[in-house]
């Protein structure tokens, strides 16, 4: 039985494409732009007519940019321009003091203890999906990518906003889909730095989705404000919404403004669901191609899920390793970018405020100097003792430094519990004639979804 295999990914190009080809490919699928040298060299500088980019895939240099000298770097204007439509005042996009204040205020909700307390709810949401899948026609085929997108949105709705999303969940989810689709492609206009008033394709759809979100989120806030007015502190729901509305910044005593509250609700819903859905989608795909790991994860789930719920997560070591390996091969956020605020040296290379610094987890995680057989699926790399050999800053699915993902424990817990449940209860096989291909559209996902045949285990 094969234990490792090579999952689909673009073969690195022999050399970088010319400008026109590069812009076309960036628009279609940035993953297909990477040439061999990026996977072999620690730092590569490229000069385009409108931009100088420095691609950094050396752990020491990454630490310099994201951690040690983080205050000298900002999120880049392209990323901000793309995200600004709607998320502009949320934690993902703000900078400086506003970021510090928001991060301090929001951190308690994502503390490990708080996240652990969501385990039971997460398992209940996973159970609801299992019930639905059991009702599918014999050998029913479903697009699990879509299923996981709904599941992870619902997970946020019931854990973080304990009253749920409020209005019609399906309509909200459809609007979220539309929103990501419209945001999803790197436009040439964005790359060239065209100002916001220049019309871009997809902006109308984006505005429509945003207007809808604003309406729904304002309603959620209004309902919660009325409820908070009626109850005392101990009776208030203990969730992100209460925190957003009530808790002042520990340092300044200032609460978040209504605009910041709304932007953060949208930020958590959008930053937290598709990323996690992709991790689950890729993990499911990878397992479906590796009977050896499917059996191992199932054996682990049989013991852990049917036993004592205390310490459940710590028992799901193999399941977690599969999720981590899925995030290595297919990191939901395939590239991070920064701009220096002043001249700086990254390794031997001088960068200045006009440079764009790119750290691409997709490249880093497949770098020839950092990983053994980087293109092969092998979750064993994340098991002891091999795990200790992974250099710090060689594996960055959640970024690093002060702007590291605030929801990483939440996402890993959710993905691990859901995957264990599904593998325990179902056979999941790729639908015949499906070609799986990774595409980077804001997040990294399979180009045409992931149709799978789902069969309850007892009937398999
Ligand atoms: C597998 C799932 C996830 C992945 C791979 C992921 C990845 C990332 C990455 C790479 C960053 C850093 C971006 C940068 O440095 O430019 C980030 C930031 C962020 N993530 Fe996640 N994320 C995931 C799940 C979540 C969840 C569940 C939430 C919330 C519910 C969340 C909320 C955020 C926020 C608010 C930030 C900005 C943090 C800041 O700038 O202080 N993410 N995420």
What this model shows, in words?
By secondary structure, this protein is an alpha+beta fold. The protein has one domain: Cytochrome p450 (Orthogonal Bundle). Helices cover 48% and strands 12% of the residues. The protein contains 18 helices and 12 strands. It has a 5-stranded mixed β-sheet. Strand 6 and strand 7 (349-351) form a beta hairpin. The chain is globular, with a radius of gyration of 22 Å. The protein starts with 18 loop residues before the first helix and ends with a strand. The model has no long low-confidence stretch (mean pLDDT 88). Bound molecules: protoporphyrin IX containing FE (HEM).
CATH class bucket: Mainly Alpha
CATH topology: Cytochrome p450
List the strand order in the largest sheet: 1-2-8-5-3
* Approximate helicity band: 40-55%
Unique bound compounds:
protoporphyrin IX containing FE
**How many strands appear in the DSSP assignment?**
12
Domain count:
1
- Per CATH, the architecture is Orthogonal Bundle
Provide the β-strand percentage band. Answer: 5-15%
Uncertain runs are none
CATH superfamily: Cytochrome P450
Total DSSP helices: 18
- Order of helices and strands, N to C? HHEEHEHHHHEHHHHHHHHHEEEEHHEEEE
Brief characterization of the structure:
With about 450 residues, the chain is of the alpha+beta class. The protein contains 18 helices and 12 strands. It has a 5-stranded mixed sheet with strand order 1-2-8-5-3. It has a 3-stranded antiparallel sheet with strand order 4-12-9.
